[in-house]
Amino acid sequence: MPEPFILILDDPVVKPDLVRSILRSREELGQTYLVISHDHEFIKAICDRVMLIREGKVISIGDPDEIVRLFNELETPMGAGATDTEGFYGFGE
């Protein structure tokens, strides 16, 4: 069976075995993935590029550290009034 072109993961940090598999896949296969998560540290650890979405609108796309810094400058911190449409979308290759 062919490998998927892109792997989409919605909040995978709740499953540690899956996280280990993601990291191994990235290193061994150079696989591209899209990760949807509110966990800043996880996103920074495994993603090359990050998209910050707030209220359904793309705020910024860039380096994980840059996007987390931008997020921290916004008025509403993640987890304190955040809506389901806010979050980090990380990309890895």
How would you portray this structure in words?
Strand 1, helix 1 and strand 2 (32-37) form a beta-alpha-beta unit. This protein has a 5-stranded mixed β-sheet, with helices on one face. It has one domain (6-92). Helix content is 33%, strand content 31%. The chain has 93 residues and is of the alpha+beta class. The model has no long low-confidence stretch (mean pLDDT 75). It contains 3 helices and 5 strands. The chain is elongated. This is ABC transporter ATP-binding protein.
Feature tags:
33% helix; 93 residues; single chain; five-stranded mixed beta sheet; 5 strands; alpha+beta; elongated; 3 helices
Give the SSE layout.
Blueprint: E1 6-10, H1 16-29, E2 32-37, H2 40-46, E3 49-54, E4 57-62, H3 64-73, E5 87-92
Parallel strand pairs: 1-2
Antiparallel strand pairs: 2-5, 3-4, 3-5
Radius of gyration: 13 Å
Secondary structural class:
alpha+beta
Give start-end ranges of low-pLDDT stretches. Answer: none
Q: How many separate domains make up the residues?
A: 1
Widest sheet: strand ordering: 1-2-5-3-4
Helix content: 25-40%
The 3D shape can be described as elongated
* SSE order, one letter for each helix or strand: EHEHEEHE
| Straight-line distance between termini | 21 Å
Biggest sheet record: 5 strands, mixed
Q: Which band does the percent of strand residues land in?
A: 25-35%
Overall pLDDT metric? 75
Number of strands: 5
Count helical runs: 3
